Amino acid sequence: MDHALPTLADVKAAADRIAPLAVRTPLLSSPDLDERAGGRILLKAETFQRTGTFKFRGACNFIRLIPAERRPAGVVAWSSGNHAQGVAAAAALHGVEATIVMPDDAPAPKRAGTERYGATVIGYDRTTESREEIGRAIAAETGATVVPPFDHPWTIAGQGTVGLEMAEQTAAAGHVLDAVLVPCSGGGLVSGVAIGLSGSHAQAEVYAVEPADCDDTARSLAAGERVANPPDADSICDALLVPIPGEVTFEIMRSRLAGALTVSDAETLRAMRYAFETLKVVLEPGGAVALATVLAGRFAAAGRTVGVVLSGGNVDPGTFARAIG
Amino acid sequence: MDHALPTLADVKAAADRIAPLAVRTPLLSSPDLDERAGGRILLKAETFQRTGTFKFRGACNFIRLIPAERRPAGVVAWSSGNHAQGVAAAAALHGVEATIVMPDDAPAPKRAGTERYGATVIGYDRTTESREEIGRAIAAETGATVVPPFDHPWTIAGQGTVGLEMAEQTAAAGHVLDAVLVPCSGGGLVSGVAIGLSGSHAQAEVYAVEPADCDDTARSLAAGERVANPPDADSICDALLVPIPGEVTFEIMRSRLAGALTVSDAETLRAMRYAFETLKVVLEPGGAVALATVLAGRFAAAGRTVGVVLSGGNVDPGTFARAIG
After folding, report:
1. What is the pLDDT of residue A79?
2. Would an 8 Å CB–CB cutoff place A114 in contact with chain B?
3. Is B88 on the interface with A (CB under 8 A)?
């Protein structure tokens, strides 16, 4: 591994670093959800973060840590859409040029959002090309700094501020988290959240939640080593299609997580509908998987205080209409 | 008038009374919205209240004030849907039977929501029958207590807790509200909010916001007396179709409001779409009108700190899909 693992001190430093720009998102509760679950569910609504997902946190922390002399060459990133928007928005706020490599089949609002922040978007074919190769070639040519979507301590520390805030907000409300459920793809968010919680909530069980057919984290944890999804693995959760856990994130996850859970796409769609009908929060599929585990009874929340990260809400109107219809 | 006007002390008492059951909804902010408006916009998200709208507050306060000996006879209310759900939910939590008179063309989720809380729903034809007559006949027959949707000091004091919380949350964030924009139909919410703000935010300008074709409050304030909408007045804002301001609410509005604003249905639909795309909050048409005034430039928010009440999110999937599509 190239990097030392990020620590709670890194997450706290990231929190101070991004505080002027990131939204301190609310911790919501719903009497209806509590009744259904038979426990106390606290929802960390990263849907209300800049760009509609938690990704802004990691991107902002990373970009602020790029040495001043390297910033004029810009940044480059690859992403199915949410990291793209996070990097584009964070770069724009710091006067840094951003180039984003996005799949041609990314949801339209994610591409539009990325371009709206002034980034240059370069498309690629998700089935035949490597976004990482394209991105690294651009970086080599232009001197731009690569902003990794998850497998870097600076990115992880930024995402970890979600966990730190959950710990602070839960304590302020007079509660203690027994468990925390976090949507997972490359593992940047869940590993960061586990670190962010490790100060005041060291006892809290942290679970990664994945789509059933993209359960590389669950299988990697079981195997004790990084295992990839089959090449044809797919899910409606376009934000959760990374094929294998990161190296840094896996080291953190294997030592800090209580486990990994999975949900079917049908359960995820039902969670999106529930969020529309009852919570009044717009969730994208990947942002709904942790909520889905509670609603589908795949995690026993009864009698416990459970944090659930609603990680994003960037969904195109057609997909959303189908989910709620 | 039958009633003394509610006071700030009444609103504070209501806040204590409903605190065990009502959600203290968050005050959201959005960097994107602030940029568009050129000011600081603070969104009071009553969408996250029990039953999806502020109506639970007034209903809960009212029902808790019904003398114990009258509760066994139950309560009765009439409503296009949101007051219905508020009363049904509050009644259920207090073990009181509720009968609700609702128009046959009320949005399906509002009727379903009302029945889900165990209330008995009685339909009527909005164009030929009087819901108030039907409701009062039931009350006379059964001895049930009428829970008025807006024109009663107990109801108004309950809705006023929205204003009280906005004042507290804004102060806690280190800001001061220059103006507050509130969706308005019968006037219970906006008159309550004006009273709730009158302690720490006596200088804040409070505006009622109405659909352009249902601007009875605007015309009543201009005329200095209660003026009704024409019988054929209509709007997509099904929650804002009360034909004339209440007597109690008008007395409060004429003395406390800075004015009334209107928005077109098209502007309201655009605000719903913006809330979906950027805020990630589900709004019903009537819940979006105050936000619409800011987005449509009908209220000059530049350089000011402006509170905007997102009053409700009970919208059927078909209407929502059309708004965001």
Report:
1. 86
2. no
3. no
Tokens matching residue B80: 């296009």
**pLDDT-based confidence at B1, cuts 50/70/90?**
very low
Residue A203 in tokens: 């006892």
Give residue A80's pLDDT.
76
Tell whether the model's pLDDT for residue B242 goes beyond 60: yes
Residues β-bridged to residue A261: A209
B51 conformational bin, left if phi > 0, alpha if psi -120 to 50, beta if neither? left
Average pLDDT over residues B197-221: 97
A44, pLDDT greater than 80: yes
How many residues does the structure list for chain A?
325
Q: Decide if A55 is catalytic.
A: yes
What residues of chain B lie within 8 A of the CB of A282, using their CB? 276, 280-282
- Collect all residues of chain A within an 8 Å Cβ-Cβ radius of residue B318: 325
Cα–Cα nearest to B28, from B309, B318, B324, B316 = B309
Q: Do B52 and A321 touch (CB under 8 A)?
A: no
Structural contact between residues B160 and B6, judged by C-beta atoms closer than 8 angstroms: yes
> What distance in Å separates the CA atoms of residue B35 and residue A272, rounded to the nearest whole number?
29
Return the closest-CA partner of residue B276 out of A270, A29, A109, A102: A109
- % of chain B residues with pLDDT over 90: 92
Strands (DSSP E) contained in B53-200 are: 75-78, 98-103, 120-124, 145-146, 179-183
Which pLDDT belongs to residue B2? Answer: 53
Report the mean per-residue pLDDT for chain A.
96
A282 interfacial to chain B (CB closer than 8 Å): yes
